[in-house]
Design brief:
Elements (H helix, E strand, L loop, with lengths): L4 E3 L1 H9 L13 E4 L8 E5 L1 H9 L5 E4 L6 E4 L3 E3 L3 E4 L3 E4 L6 E7 L4 E6 L2 E3 L4 E8 L7 E7 L2 E3 L13 E3 L3 E7 L2 E5 L3 E4 L1 E7 L2 E5 L5 E4 L11 E4 L2 E5 L4 E4 L10 E3 L2 E5 L6 E3 L6 E3 L2 E5 L3 E5 L5 E3 L2 E4 L2 E5 L6 E3 L2 E3 L4 E5 L10 E3 L2 E3 L4 E5 L8 E3 L2 E5 L10 E7 L7 E3 L2 E5 L8 E7 L10 E3 L2 E4 L7 E5 L9 E3 L2 E3 L3 E5 L6 E3 L2 E3 L12
Parallel strand pairs: 1-2, 2-4, 3-5, 4-7, 5-8, 6-9, 7-10, 8-11, 9-12, 10-13, 11-14, 12-15, 13-16, 14-17, 15-18, 16-19, 17-20, 18-21, 19-22, 20-23, 21-24, 22-25, 23-26, 24-27, 25-28, 26-29, 27-30, 28-31, 29-32, 30-33, 31-34, 32-35, 33-36, 34-37, 35-38, 36-39, 37-40, 38-41, 39-42, 40-43, ...
Length: about 525
């Protein structure tokens, strides 16, 4: 016997009563019942709530309930309560009545949310209903387990949800060993909202028009379920987002370890918001994501130490990558373009930024700074191999603007800045524009021991322009080691306040008009 066996509702229940509905390993294939055989009409006008619930309630364990082809639309006026150890499939639409109260279309109740497959169905909230609520109506100690939601469509959930159950997929308790893959979310107030996930894959979903909440939000509240390992969010795409594309957050997130967020593509935010935010746990891997045309604060926000942020492309946003807590992290090979603030920011928010490696990133036309360290706790960090390019005149405000390739607050312990290229370009000098390659801030001796080595500082305008190093106060560069750097086509090699105790070796200047107040060329 090949494939599932389809039987009528009456025969299905009869076989089950006779104990003939057994698992495939015992000689029979999985039985499949059709909702039409339980009286469901699917014409889009008849209220099929009772018939669908009868079909669900009559389904024995380990069987499949088939909702039929895309030609069926089942109108319901109250939520459907699904059962564990069951599969719900088809290409049909389940649509909530417009007169129904705000509620989910389908519910997996607390303690009864395990071993469930939902495949191919369309859940239409009709503006008044969320999609699927999982592990609801109970306490907070039994997570959902082995939930598979695949190839389904969620649309028209409430535009401004006032509770989690109005999201397309919602689990407030915990969800383990589960997959959400290949689904579409269209015109939803919120996409996927899950608490305390573990061994979870969110793969290859499509989001189009999320009007209030995140597309994907993984929450880790302080509750009895300390999960957070083996989380993969990959291959998802979205546009027209009102809030974040992907967010991991919560006060109970200390157990989150090594989440992978990779190869996601999101664009066209409808309001100023973030792209990807990971503010829990440690060891996050953010790789090869595309966040395009953003207008909010941060493209990538990192608050997890020992993380790797690599090979991402971020355009727009105020900051390309912001690090709040990220000690022992790596920011490498990212392409950051057209930020209205800085390409990379080490913020002054609580959390250590010590021993961070920022390497081989390409930062193009950040408006204010390529790399900005607005904190002192970034000691022992290394900035190496980065290319920072600023086209003078790229922004309408450039006629009265100040730009720094790197603007550096004194670190609490020395740092190394090596093999970077900081370059200014443009066809003409913008009147009033101030260009500084390295802005060194702080009082005397505050940067002592920091090493600037083998960096290239240049401009490619028709005439010399800009400043190589600029000290903001007298002695701010005392004790700094500046060696084997190349200065090309600059108005001044140094500017600002003088420092008399700089350690200098092997620097060169080509086509620079003045050396400035700090003697770097011997």
């Amino acid at each position: 016997m090949k494939g599932p066996v389809k039987v009528s509702g009456f025969l299905f229940l009869l076989l089950y009563a006779l104990n003939l509905c057994v698992s495939p390993g015992k000689g029979f294939q999985t039985l499949t019942a059709r909702v039409q055989d339980f009286g469901a009409i699917g014409d889009g006008t008849t209220d099929d709530s009772a018939a669908l619930q009868n079909a669900i309630d009559g389904l024995p364990a380990n069987a499949v309930l088939d909702f039929g082809s895309a030609s069926f639309t089942y109108l319901i006026s109250r939520p459907l309560t699904l059962h564990p150890n069951s599969a719900y499939t088809g290409a049909a639409t389940i649509k909530m009545s417009s007169s129904a109260p705000v509620t989910p279309i389908a519910i997996l109740t607390y303690g009864q949310a395990s071993n469930v497959t939902i495949d191919g169905l369309t859940f239409d909230g009709n503006g008044v209903a969320g999609g699927i609520s999982i592990a609801v109506g109970g306490e907070a100690s039994i997570p959902a387990d082995n939930i598979r939601i695949t190839n389904s469509t969620f649309r028209n959930t409430p535009a401004k949800p006032i509770g989690g159950g109005e999201n397309a997929i919602y689990d407030p308790v915990g969800i383990l060993n589960s997959v959400i893959q290949g689904n579409s979310f269209i015109n939803c107030g919120g996409g996927i909202l899950l608490a305390d996930a573990g061994n979870l894959q969110i793969l290859n979903n499509q989001f189009d028009t999320i009007t209030q909440d995140d597309a994907i939000y993984l929450l880790f509240p302080a509750n009895p379920i300390p999960y957070g390992r083996q989380i993969v969010v990959s291959g998802n795409q979205g546009k027209n987002l009102a809030r974040m594309a992907i967010e991991l957050w919560g006060p109970g997130g200390d157990t989150v370890d090594g989440p992978v967020i990779s190869e996601n593509v999101f664009q066209q935010w409808t309001s100023p918001q973030f792209g990807i935010s990971v503010m829990v746990g440690k060891g996050a891997r953010l790789d090869s994501n595309f966040l395009l045309d953003g207008s909010g604060a941060y493209g990538i926000e990192l608050g997890a130490p020992e993380s790797q942020v690599t090979n991402n492309v971020v355009s727009g946003f105020s900051t390309g990558i912001t690090v709040h807590q990220g000690q022992n992290s790596l920011l490498q090979n990212n392409l950051l373009m057209n930020q209205t603030g800085a390409g990379i920011l080490l913020s002054n928010a609580p959390g250590s930024k010590s021993n961070i490696t920022i390497s081989d990133n390409y930062i193009q036309d950040a408006q204010s700074a390529g790399i900005f360290t607005n904190t002192s706790d970034w000691g022992a960090s290394i900035l190496t191999g980065n290319t920072i390019v600023r086209n003078i005149g790229a922004w309408p405000t450039d006629r009265a603007w100040r730009y720094s390739g790197m603007s550096l607050t004194p670190p609490d312990t020395p740092v190394t800045i090596r093999n970077n290229r900081v370059s200014g370009s443009g066809s003409a000098v913008a009147l009033g524009f101030v260009y500084v390659a390295f802005q060194v801030n702080g009082p005397p001796q505050s940067n002592a021991g920091t090493v600037y080595e083998s960096n290239t500082i240049d401009t490619s305008l028709g005439s010399p322009f800009g400043i190589g190093f600029n000290g903001n106060s007298q002695g701010s560069m005392d004790g700094v080691v500046i060696k084997n750097n190349s200065f090309q086509n600059l108005l001044k090699v140094t500017g600002g306040a003088p420092s008399l105790q700089v350690v200098v070796e092997g620097n060169s200047a080509t086509n620079c008009l003045t050396l400035g107040p700090i003697q770097l060329i011997l």
